[in-house]
Amino acid sequence: MAFDAHVPEIAGVIQLAVAPVFLLTAVGTVIAALNIRLGRAVDRRRVLEQKLPSMPAQEVQSARDELQTIARRIRYVYLAILSAVISALFVCMLIAGAFLGAFVRSDLSYTIGAMFVFAMLALTACLLLFVREIFLAVSTPRHVPR
Fold it and tell me: Once rounded to an integer, what is the mean pLDDT over residues 113-141?
C-alpha cells in the first residue's frame, strides 16, 4: 500500500496534536464564559433602556452613566471573543499544518511554530480584554432606583 511509509509519521503527528486539541478545548471554554458575560451585559442594558423613560429626572444621569459603562464592557467582551476565535483558528490551522506536513513530507516547522505564537498572542489579548471587562464590571457602581 502506498501510504504505509506515512503511517509512523502520521501516528507521531497525532501524538503531537493532542496538546493543541486540549488548548482548543480551553479556548472554547473561555469563549463560553465570555458569551455568558456578554449576555448578562446585554440583558442589563435592555432593562435599563426599558426603564429609562419612566425614571425620575434625578436618576436618569446615573442610568445613562451605567449604560455607557455597559457599552464599553460589551465592546471589550466582543473584542475578547474575537481574539479567542482568532486564537482557536490558528490552533486549528496549526493542527492541519502538522498533518499536511506529514502527508507531503515537507518541513512546515517554522510555519507551525509561527501559528502557535500567533495563537498565543491572540489568546493573551483575549485574556487581557477579559480582565479589563471584569475590572469595569466590578469597579463601576450600579444604578439602583430610589
Answer: 94
91: cell is: 490552533
**What is each CA distance from 140 to 9, 126, 133, in whole angstroms?**
54, 21, 11
Q: What is the largest CA-CA distance in the chain?
A: 81
The total of structural domains in the chain comes to 1
Give domain status of residue 52, yes or no.
yes
Asked whether residue 4 is assigned to any structural domain, the reply reads no
Structural domain harbouring 30: 15-139
Q: Which three cell numbers stand for residue 126?
A: 483575549
| Residue 67 lies inside a defined structural domain of this protein | yes
* Cα-based distances in Å from 93 to 17, 29, 103: 11, 19, 15
In angstroms, the first-to-last Cα distance of the chain is 79
At 9-28, the pLDDT tens digits run: 667 777 777 888 899 999 99
